[in-house]
Amino acid sequence: MSGTTPRQHWLAILARASRAEIESLAGGLSALPDHDVLKAPETGTVMVEGRAGGAGRRFNLGEATVTRCVVRLGDGTMGFSYALGRDGRKARLAAVIDGLLQREGEAGPLRSGVAELAARQQAARTLASRKAAATKVDFFTLVRGA
Amino acid sequence: MYVAVKGGEAAILATHDLIAEARRGNEAVPELSVAQIREQMGLACARVMNEGSLYDADLAALALKQAQGDAIEAAFLMRAYRTTLPRFGSSEPVDTAQMAIRRRVSATYKDLPGGQVLGPTYDYTHRLFDFALMEEEPRRAPSPLAGEGRGEGSRDAADALLAKPANESDQCAPSSAPLGHLLPQGEKERAPLDTTMPRVPDILGAEGLMEAEEPPEGDPRPFDLTREPVSFPADRDVRLQAMARGDEGFMLGLGYSVQRGYGNSHPFVGEVRVGEVSVAFVPEELGFAVDLGEITLTECQMVNQFNGTKDVPPQFTRGYGLAFGHAERKAMSMSLVDRALKAREFGEAAEYPAQQDEFVLYHSDNVEAAGFVEHLKLPHYVDFQGELELIRRIRREREQRLARETQETQVQETQAQETQDTLPEAAE
Fold this sequence. Notes:
A: alpha+beta, B: alpha+beta
């Protein structure tokens, strides 16, 4: 997403991370902070919309599974997680991390952890793009009967 | 009318055991894991996600495993599961112009901005078996192109490729990115693709040569056929939703019929693109868009021949197809039928099946179709008893009628005979 806030940015990074990556991010903390689970991890769906012709009338393409979780840290900060898939544990940890990130300064350890994840995701995208670029072709038009 | 029956519990439980055994097959052969199906049967998973109308590759793989690879039964499992989930809402419309492209080809322009990217495709394979894939040892599978055209000898080519040291960055591939294992030649030197590539119809549109696709006044919420009954004529949003979840084979057959002359169509693939697109959702409690992650989509823009009116000069018309996962045949078929279904809007005679929304929408859903066709094998004893009684009565009545007629004929013949007997002179 372009034109996003820092929080939107980290939520996007966390949503794309695997459970193992989120666990290792949370594992870097000395201890998971006390928190209340306001909305326990819940799996539901979001209807994915498309547009006719790519830019025209909206239509419903089909649903996707989404898991969400909301927590409240000791100081009242609310942490959210919304991500594709059905991973409840990832959702809860990501919600706690979202809460902590809101409290943490820009130079905090979680921020740099998220930055690392972001770099890894970007590297993966670039690699995929390079692989695709290796299949770029130039078709020649042959003149029939020449 | 279908009358329910009771009983047969023991037999049904036994058949559950037996189907589990049949599904497992020979126990000397290792069991498939869901992750294996997800990773190695990705195109089958895409089909199940489309027809099950639920994007979740793990569930699609599970459905395929549970259904022994029966795509329609697997789609049914997806649909059934979906009904147990709450719906949080609708996403922002996905923006396919921002797609992270893995494949993008156009049949209309040789040199288009961003270029032609073949990506992973079977299009240019020779459809010869790659017997190296029969190897049972766990090893890195060779590229489908590796042994192309060499039959059994392909193993050598595969070995040569396997001998290459694995690329390090390839090892830490993240969960979300669908990466292959063997790096195509020259991958290292290649610059990545452009981050955004214009959609081909938009290029034509900039010249005014293409039918415009703009949101209607107010950009209304789309109709949802899973929540409201469909009425006809159906609007474009209804048609697109129905086709997106429609059976690939049915859509393919209809698309083919359009090309063969059962519908007014002269199509070119403006563009097919495959890649990853972000899904954004605005949770009420947050009030801003949250990026939920990426899904793989296939989009097809079909360019068709002209239409014009008094006010609008002749323009190309278009058909649109969009599908979950890598599903080109589905997206292309959908785009052909989408254009055919615009017949009414363009004032064309809707003479053929693919042009008739009611026909297409009522028959494209394979879960409904399979349900109605396959329910015929369930007990219909009461119905059939009725039919039996009816046919017996009809036959009885027919026999009685015939008997009566025979009798009457005999009586008439006898009378005629008697008449002749009494008037012998007259006969001679």
